[in-house]
Design brief:
Helix content of chain B: 55-70%
Radius of gyration of chain A: 19 Å
Strand content of chain A: 15-25%
CATH superfamily of chain B: MetI-like
Distance between the termini of chain A: 19 Å
Number of strands of chain A: 10
Largest interface: A-B, 28 and 24 residues
Oligomer: heterodimer
Strand content of chain B: under 5%
Number of domains of chain B: 1
Largest sheet of chain B: 2 strands, antiparallel
Number of helices of chain A: 11
Shape of chain A: globular
CATH topology of chain B: MetI-like fold
Distance between the termini of chain B: 58 Å
Radius of gyration of chain B: 27 Å
Strand order of the largest sheet of chain B: 1-2
CATH class of chain B: Mainly Alpha
Shape of chain B: globular
Order of helices and strands of chain A: HEEEHEEHEHHHHEHEHEEHH
Number of strands of chain B: 2
Structural class of chain B: mainly alpha
Amino acid sequence: MAHSFTNVAANRPPTPPKGPATAAVAPAGQTPPQVTKFEVRDLSFFYGATQALFSVNLSIPQQSVTALIGPSGCGKSTFLRVLNRMNDIIEDTRVLGTALLEGIDIYGPLVDVVALRKRVGMVFQKSTPFPKSIFDNIAFGPRIAGVRDKAVLAETVETSLVRAALWGEVKDRLQDSALALSGGQQQRLCIARALATNPDVLLMDEPASALDPASTARVEDLIFELKQNYTIVIVTHNMQQAARVSDSTAFFYNGKLIEFGDTRQLFTKPREQQTEDYITGRFG
Amino acid sequence: MTAPPIPPAAQPDWLTAGKREGRVFSTLCWLSTWSSVAILAVLLSGIIYQAWGWLDWQFLTSFDSQRFPAKAGILAGLWGTFWTILITILVAVPVGVGAAVYLEEFGRNDRLSRIIQVNLSNLAGVPSIVYGILGLTAFSRMFGLFGEQGLIKTTGIRWLGLDIPLPFGNTVVAGALTLALMILPVIIVASQEALRAVPPSIRHAALALGATKWQMVSHQVLPAALPGIMTGVILAISRAMGEAAPLILVGATTFVLYAPGDISSLSDIKDNPTGLLKAPFDTFTVMPIQIFNWAQQAKADFREHVAAAGIVVLLAMLLLLNATAIIVRNRSQRKMKY
């Protein structure tokens, strides 16, 4: 069966080569053997009495982009926030099951949630710059981690902005308010800010949904660049985007993980009927 | 060829029906707005007219005089107000802002914090005279715990070079603590409002970057809320500055011929630095009490002119404070748009 995403997924440029630490480049058309970053087992999540996730099992490979798709309210954002424990700040929530980051249970008793969030950065749907200068926005992460040296801070700010493809646009006005930037620039600022804490996972909750097409394209290019060094999990409503940027895709529906697999396979030959109905636009 | 002119149509009733009501209503609103301004203008011009010729440098630099209205001055009240308000700020601001931060950022939304919340709103409406009685019992007399007849036979202690009388008696510190109690609810409620106005996304962003809750509050939330907090604090302070009733109860003196700590000019600070340590524990008066005292005098000049001059000085300081609050608010509104 042929629909629009089939072409998008099939015509994607090949995945850029992985770093030496990971597996060798796989032959085209096959999922390369992956090192697992997150291993989620039998995970259920509750907001008070309402269950939002039902026994989710998912392995997120390292240095790749994993897209979470599904209709609104299906639990994909909840699942994303499980991975850096941002759900902890919502009162009266409960997690069952395990979520392992490199084999360590992130809900275990010895885990410091602050340290976890430094390793697992997050970018929100709405850009959330602090009402401060561009420099102070990026430097916030390192500063709270105890970096006082001005030269080190300046270097971190520069490398983060370069990685987030924003350096050229803002290098002459680092002391200007971050609120003066355009929407697309603000979102890349937030990505740069997340990178400044030197995480190895980046969670993105619909990072481009509030952006115009040009800014969206820049953010997508950026995601493509970043996956050489980072493990990226992205929630998106835009299936074209999922097909364009991700290596593997998970389809959530009503709090259940319906299907998880290689993006190309999921968009061209979905195993489940529900997945096919969703990506062909029959519901959701 | 020209187009034929459109004949003017008669205005149908349904088109004009609401118009008159609207005009009546807006006129009423205009009247109520400007009547308050007019009353203020009449009061101000009356007071300034009465104070004219009496409000001069001599008035600002002299102590009070019991017999000669021309020699009376507000110096004791100025210094008394300065010391009282200074200590009030030092006590009320940290406690008030701290309480607001706790309630908004750290406290759980449980029954206890709801009870505290309701009581805070009630406390903000308690008449100041009630705080005066509280201050008299708790600070001036300290429940009779100290002194010759008290449980603890002492009249004071020395601590860090300060001679602290126990109980505090009719001193600056007792008055300031009373005023601090009085404005605490106002400061807490205003600070809570300011903290609530900081969007939650800022908090989430900070937490997601690996900030602890304290780092989130101290680096992001408090700075963003600071202008709102400062506006509330300044307005609360100006309320405290105009209060006479609670201080009369606590025992501020009506007729004083000295400033607290005997510091009545800036050069006194250099000549008499230990006065700075003594001032908080000295007896005192404040501007509103001096005005109150003058308004009761037998001599007409005191009642009509000296009191008016005092009112002008007090009003000028209050307006200055309120203007500061407005400037702070406007500047921050320009700087912070979420």
